[in-house]
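Deliverable D4.2, example record:
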Amino acid sequence: MKMISAILATGLLFSMPSFAKEVVVEIYKKKFIPAEITIEAGDTVIWKNIEKRQYHNVWFKSLDAEEPDYFFPDESYQRTFDEAGKFPYECGPHPKMTGVVTVKQP
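Output generated by the structure prediction step:
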């Protein structure tokens, strides 16, 4: 009986779904920190503007034809990634600010 319980418990452990995570990228001194991140499909990235006065945005030109709205100090933007791939982005008003989100299948 103990053997059956152990087998069932092990099966449940391996069949439990993985939970999506939230990953934070800070924006400070006109930089994305960290600039490159790797996440799993289903995870959400939150960009937090911690500048004192500067506005920014997060523009995935390969995914979005139009430049997104700006967000200001103490505001944030978030995006959930469901597909695997490599997604470069930049700040529209500050194109030298760049980053990459790499999404892997869990």
